[in-house]
Design a protein that fits this description.
Strands 6-5-4-7-11 form a 5-stranded mixed beta sheet, with helices on both faces. Strands 14-13-12-15-16 form a 5-stranded mixed beta sheet, with helices on both faces. It is of the alpha/beta class. Helix 2 (29-36) packs across helix 3 (40-52). The longest helix is centred in the C-terminal third of the chain and has 25 residues, at 278-302. It has 14 helices and 16 strands. The structure holds zinc ion. Zinc ion binds next to loops.
Length: 386
C-alpha cells in the first residue's frame, strides 16, 4: 500500500478507527481524533462511514466536566459474524462468532484418522452451510485453519503431510456452496493470532508450540509469523523410536499425542492423565523432558523473548509444566534460562479461537496489516487524509 494515495490513507484510517473502537467500550469523536492524531473533519467523516456500514452505533451522551455532552460511538458487536473452522487431527470445530469473539453457534465433528479429501471436504462444506444459512446477521467471511502448507492466495491446501492431501482447493469449494468469501490458514499461525487477539499477547518476539496429536511451532518476530516450513516436532531428541515422518528419534516419538496413545492402549492424553498410573506418569515426564530439550534448542537458535505452549497437551496439570520449566532452566544457556516459558492464556480454546481470530482479522479488522504498516514506520503516525 502506498500511504501517499488519499484513498489508501482513508482506508487505513477507517481501519484504525474501527480497531480503536474495538479496544474501548465507547469513545466520542473528539476522543478518536485525539487518540489517533487525526483532524476532526476526517474523523467525523470516517465515523459517518462506519455508521453507514452499521459497524458502529451512537450511544447516549455523557456529561463532561465542562458541561458539554458529546455523543459516544461504540462498536456494534453483532454487526457482522464470522465463521471460524478448525480442522484438527482428532476433531473439526465450527465456531460462528460475533465481532467480539463471542461464540453464537458451535459444532464439533470427529476427524477421521486418514480423512479422504473429497468425503471429508463435503462434510465440512455441509456443516459450513448449515451454520451460515440461517443467520439473519451478515457473515463477513469464513476462515478454515488446518495443518499443512497453504497456497499464498489462501485457496488451496498444497500439501497436508499427515493426511496425504495434495492441491486440495477447499476454500473455493466452500465459497461456491456458501456464497461466502473463504480463506485457508495454517493452524499454528491461527493459534498465534488468537494468542494476540484474545490472549492480549504483546511480546514482539516469541516461540510458540502447538503441542497436540502432532507437534508444530511458529516463530514470531516483529509482525512476521513463520511456521509452515519449520519441523520442530521432528528435531532429533532420542537415539531410537520410529516417527510417523519416517525419521528416527524425533521429538514427536516421545512427546506427541499419537506416540503417547500408542504406548498406552490408544487412550488420549486427557484420559491418560486421569489414570495416575506409574507407567503413564513416567511417559508424560519423559515427554516433558524431551519438550524442554527441544525448547532449549529453539531458544538458543532464535533468541526468542518468550516461549508459549499451546495445544491440548500443553494443558497437562501444573506439575508437568513445572517439570518442563525446571528442566529448561537447568539446561538452557544462562542468557536464555530466565526467559518466560508459559502456557497459552487461552488454554484448551486456542485451536477453536485461532480460526475465529484469523477470520476477524482477515474479513473485518485487518489488524495484522495495520501492525505491519506501523511496524515499518513506527516513528510517525500513519498519514492523514486531505
Ligand atoms: Zn519425525
Amino acid at each position: 500500500m502506498k500511504f501517499s494515495q488519499p484513498a489508501t490513507a482513508r482506508t487505513v484510517n477507517r481501519l484504525r478507527v474501527l480497531n480503536l473502537l474495538d479496544a474501548y467500550p465507547s469513545l466520542s469523536r473528539s476522543d478518536i481524533a485525539r487518540m489517533l492524531a487525526l483532524n476532526k473533519p476526517s474523523t467525523s467523516e470516517i465515523v459517518e462511514q462506519l455508521l453507514g456500514e452499521q459497524l458502529v452505533e451512537e450511544q447516549g451522551k455523557t456529561v463532561q466536566r465542562n458541561g458539554r455532552r458529546p455523543t459516544m460511538v461504540a462498536l456494534k458487536h453483532d454487526a457482522r459474524l464470522v465463521l471460524g473452522v478448525d480442522l484438527g487431527t482428532r476433531t473439526a470445530s465450527f465456531s460462528l462468532s460475533d465481532l467480539k469473539g463471542n461464540l453464537l453457534r458451535f459444532e464439533r465433528l470427529p476427524t477421521p484418522r486418514q480423512p479422504d479429501a473429497k468425503e471429508f471436504g463435503q462434510l465440512v462444506i455441509k456443516t459450513c452451510m448449515k451454520l451460515t444459512r440461517i443467520s439473519s446477521i451478515p457473515i463477513a467471511g469464513i476462515i478454515v485453519s488446518c495443518g499443512g502448507t497453504i497456497s499464498e492466495d489462501g485457496n488451496t491446501i498444497l500439501n497436508h503431510e499427515y493426511w496425504g492431501w495434495k492441491d486440495v482447493p477447499l476454500a473455493k469449494a466452500i465459497e461456491m456452496h456458501t456464497k461466502l468469501p473463504t480463506r485457508l490458514v495454517n493452524h499454528v499461525k491461527a493459534m498465534v493470532q488468537a494468542e494476540r487477539w484474545f490472549g492480549n499477547e504483546t511480546t514482539k518476539t516469541f516461540f510458540y508450540v502447538n503441542w497436540g496429536e502432532h507437534i508444530s511451532s511458529a516463530w514470531v518476530h516483529a509482525n512476521t509469523i513463520s511456521c509452515e516450513r519449520t519441523r520442530f516436532g521432528h528435531l532429533p531428541i532420542a537415539p531410537t523410536g520410529l516417527c510417523r515422518c519416517g525419521g528416527i528419534g524425533c521429538l514427536e516419538t516421545i512427546a506427541a499425542g499419537w506416540a503417547l496413545s500408542e504406548k498406552h492402549q490408544g487412550l488420549s492424553v486427557k484420559q491418560l492423565q486421569q489414570l495416575n498410573d506409574d507407567a503413564v506418569v513416567k511417559s508424560l515426564s519423559l515427554a516433558c523432558q524431551a519438550m524442554a530439550m527441544a525448547l532449549i534448542a529453539a531458544s538458543a537458535v532464535t533468541g526468542c523473548e518468550k516461549i508459549i505452549l499451546g495445544g491440548g497437551i500443553a494443558n497437562l496439570d501444573d506439575r508437568y509444566l513445572q517439570l518442563i520449566q525446571d528442566f529448561y532452566r537447568e539446561h538452557a544457556h544462562h542468557a536464555l534460562a530466565e526467559i518466560p516459558l508459559v502456557r497459552s492464556q487461552l488454554k484448551d480454546r486456542s485451536s477453536v479461537l485461532g480460526s475465529v481470530a484469523s477470520a476477524l482479522d482477515h474479513w473485518v479488522f485487518h489488524r495484522s496489516i495495520l501492525e505491519t504498516m506501523q511496524g515499518l514506520d513506527q516513528e510517525k503516525p500513519l498519514l492523514e487524509t486531505e
